[in-house]
Amino acid sequence: MLSYPPTFRTDPKHYVGCTVNLKERYARHKKGYVPATKPYLPLKLKWCCSFRDRYKAYQFERYLKSGSGRAFAIKHLL
Question: What predicted TM-score, i.e. pTM, was given to this entire model?
């Protein structure tokens, strides 16, 4: 099982989440089914990575949502 923390570009914000099925989750975002990103459509997937351990994926997601994690993502990932 692989878990993905995708980062979507939603102008002017970035959305960070975690999922097991990236294609399905991205499709749900693009169709407007996710309230957090619906006002910012259209979306563009900017970056994602995979983890074998779901717990590590959630840890990394949480880091990317922190102040230093946001700065890291803007500088290195986006």
Answer: 0.78
